[in-house]
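Bench log. Compound arrived from synthesis this morning; before running ITC I wanted a structural hypothesis for how flavin mononucleotide sits in the protein. Inputs:
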Amino acid sequence: MGKRLVDPSVNLFYPAPVALVTCSKDGEDPNIITIAWTGMLSSEPPTVGIAIRPGRYSHGLVSFSREFGVNFPKAEDIEKVDFCGVASGKKVNKFEKCGFTPFEGVRIRTPLIQECPVNLECIVIDAINLGSHTLFIGEMVAAHVETGLWKGETFQAMEANPLVYLPSTAQYVSLGNIIGRYSLSRGRL
Ligand SMILES: Cc1cc2nc3c(=O)[nH]c(=O)nc-3n(C[C@H](O)[C@H](O)[C@H](O)COP(=O)(O)O)c2cc1C
């Protein structure tokens, strides 16, 4: 099969997790921004990266309060997720408009989203200007996970019905079948 040499800036990195990032002015006027440019960066300490364009209202809030919440939505909340990714907190209260319930974290002043099964409280430890986006690196200082999503000590992420994004076609996807487990290849190849 041949390959096409293309401009690497055409949104080829896939799939992307979809997160609802909450941010505020030190707890006041909370806002929600949909973020797909995000990922886990290290385990110890647990750090997460989110990339936000400088023009976004949320960019100012995260820069000001140096904290943010990462909330993973369920696939069934797709319309609210999309709304938080097209409307600006400059003009609309997205918590109210989406009917999301804010709840208080234990380490940050910015509220988290009750309807999202997983909520991570993050404190900004670095912000790197990369050009079109600023990479905010947050240390995860607390995490909340719905009680019904545990089997013993293991969080059952699949049961949280995660929402995934395919940037090149701007499509939202829910996950399909589990097809294996980490280290399934051991002793086989
Ligand atoms: C699926 C999806 C993913 C997005 N990912 C990002 C992202 O990673 N970084 C970013 O700056 N904007 C991203 N956006 C765009 C912002 O969510 C959007 O501009 C939003 O309206 C900004 O809100 P604010 O003005 O309240 O900050 C995404 C939008 C959607 C729909």
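What the model suggests: The first strand starts at residue 16 and ends at 17. The mean pLDDT is 97.
ITC booked for Thursday regardless.
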